Amino acid sequence: MPPSSTHIRTLLTAYLDRHPGERDALAGLRATLDAAGDPTGRTTLPGHITCSVAVIDRDARVLHVLHRGLGLLLAPGGHVEPDDETLPAAALREVEEETGIPAAALVLTPEFRDLPVDIDVHDIDACPAKGEAAHRHYDFRFVFHLADDAPDLRLQAEEVDGAAWLPFDEATSPTLRAKLVASGLDGAIRPANSPAGTVPNVVGVHLYLEREGHVLLGLRHPDSAYAGGSWHTLAGHLGAEAATAGMVREAHEEAGLVIDPADLELVHTVHLVDRPGGRPRIGFFFRARHWEGTPEVREPDKCVAWQWWSAKDLPEPIVPYTRAAIEGILAGRLYTEMGWSR
Fold first, then answer.
1. Which of the listed residues 142, 224, 308, 336 has the most CB atoms within 10 Å of its CB?
2. pTM of the model
3. pLDDT given for residue 114 in this prediction
């Protein structure tokens, strides 16, 4: 289900509480929310909602991508999809699709949390080739810090020609530029409303697929930002979703496997720090009791091969915590810690 009108109204109300002078400028958005239909639908006229993200790095610069065809540097973003449950979730999905930055590598700011830093209104010209009339976009813009261990940019070649990190006062959107300059953000990551010493943990899901004593492992692409050239379980970071839903999604996206969430069983958890100063990570390992499909390479930039290996004779090199988890599963243990100083 797409984001509900109630959810969108809540975000808009909170935004207007901060910026009451923009109430008249957003009258069209309020009318769209009052009308029947999906306010995020691409065919909703005379305007509909889109989402984008101001990704901020440690140097207080904001990420812009050069959109193919438009020739413009813009913050990553786009249309809301039917499966996006919230506007922040839609924005995070767009960031990952366009830049390769996963949601787990983006951190909410205490100043804005999951509320928009800016809501911009811009006119879109008619496009007869697509059968689109002239309309408006009401762009909800969210702000996230880039985590220190974020992967390198992996731009979507079909839509993005390049990227640039610009100082706040050079952001290409006038309204976003004004909000960022006035925001007080300095690039430092501070956990939002958390006790002193609290550190966000990266959460990942891993598929323990077993067949006649053999487990499925993938060979990471040698240029992969993580564990290049090593064997690893099918895995991925969680977005704004339940762990089982994330596991089902990753299994289909990476290997074309179809799994019912009810067929997943949590068999091991790993809590680790994989390098000095790195962010703590929590890995959930799920066994699939049943699945449909044959593993196929669907993301060749991440994984170049799938292979079944004896669980008792694992290949090298293999991600160390993957080996530890599989050995723990075979031994009947539910939990492993790695990398923590005692």
1. 142
2. 0.62
3. 86
